[in-house]
Amino acid sequence: MARLWVIGEPGPDGGLARISTEVATLVRGLGESNGAEVIGIVVGADPAKAATELATYVPTVIALTDANAAEHTWSAAAARHAAALAEGADAPDAIFVGAGPDGRDLAGAVSALTGLGVLTNATGVSWSDSGPTVEMSVFGGKLLTTSGFAAGRGIVTVRPNVATAAAATAPGTVEARASGATAELPLVTVVEHVAEAGAAVSIDEARIIVAGGRGVGGAQGFELVEQLAAALGGVVGASRAAVDAGWIPYSRQIGQTGKIVKPELYLALGISGAIQHKVGMRTSGTIVAVNRDADAPIAEFADLFVQGDLFEVGNALLERLNAQSG
After folding, report:
1. Binning pLDDT at 50, 70 and 90, where does residue 258 land?
2. Is the sign of the CA dihedral 218, 255, 20, 7 positive or negative?
3. How would you classify residue 172: left for phi > 0, otherwise alpha for psi between -120 and 50, otherwise beta?
4. Residue that wins the pLDDT comparison between 279 and 37
5. Which of 202, 165, 157 is nearest to 24 (CA)?
6. Pair 268, 288: CB distance under 8 Å
7. Is the pTM above the cut of 0.85?
8. Which of the four, 53, 159, 167, 170, has the lowest number of CB atoms within 10 Å?
9. CB 122, CB 159: distance < 8 Å
């Protein structure tokens, strides 16, 4: 029987990070469809809360307490324990972790300590007798590839919003365990946690996104995008072209080099829909696009494509929305 691990990443409040709920759901599905054993691993100064939350997604969770995780980077502390367990009697066939900054650091450290290979930024995963088959976007998002491990075992980092988090029908169990970790890694002290002042709602979790691209024409053009987002109760996103032009911050960028999002509604204004952008929003529930160019790539995969001037269409839509709310 194959053994699949999910490394649960603690969030700022000590609970389970959102990306780990998605990874856990994805891996649980792999286990259910292939008869594989799925185990969650949580390392923290106080792992109880995150471990309990992870147990709502997977059948078994191992909680490891490490005081070093309180004042040092979580990835280095967790990697020591994960590597020790990975080389023991219960060694996994695959280790899955979210492809956030800490998850990527952990994957690299565990790889260095164990010799396991890493497949990064997975946008889809399937399982066969030979191990995981991982879908990834490469060459700046121009191509989608599928890859596996030559030895059948390895580490996979999964991009955000690849799966929709869904709890299991019955909660799993949590087992507190000592790992016996002996590997020494430099522990980087965390001296300060900084929250961005006045930060907008995260596009990672938005139900509605109104995104602007090169066709918006400039920073002033994003005023309409912001007004539509406010009227719809959504948030503002952007293509790389708009970010590179300095019209909107990078935190709003969607696509291969930005965020992968999965809103219920994605309204794209003046976005051509090249593959680099498509890989970041293709899993949206409903995609509505407004563009002057009938041959824009986004016309091929949008659920509703409106050929026209985005300002004429956008202002007409805004007027209708304001009239309804009034």
Report:
1. confident
2. negative
3. beta
4. 37
5. 165
6. yes
7. no
8. 170
9. yes
Look at phi and psi of residue 14 and say left if phi exceeds 0, alpha if psi is from -120 to 50, else beta: left
- Residues 262 and 140: beta-carbon distance below 8 Å: no
**Lowest-confidence pick of 23-37, 66-80, 150-164:** 66-80
* Calpha distance 202→89 (Å, rounded): 41
Contact between 146 and 155 (Cβ < 8 Å): no
Tokens of 81: 């324990």
Cβ atoms of 291 and 270 within 8 Å: the answer is yes
What is the Cα–Cα distance from 19 to 25, expressed in whole angstroms? Answer: 10
Contact 8, 64 (CB under 8 A): no
Strands (E), 9-59: 37-44
Mean pLDDT lowest among 135-139, 183-187, 318-322: 183-187
CATH node for 3-176: 3.40.50.620
In the chain, where are the structural domains located? Answer: 3-176, 203-325
Measure Cα distances from 144 to 141, 163, 276 in Å: 7, 17, 11
Query: Which of 283, 325, 194, 260 has its CA nearest to residue 19?
Result: 260
3-176 and 203-325 share one fold? yes
How far apart CA 54 and CA 127 sit, in angstroms, is 22
Q: What topology does CATH give the domain 203-325?
A: Rossmann fold (3.40.50)
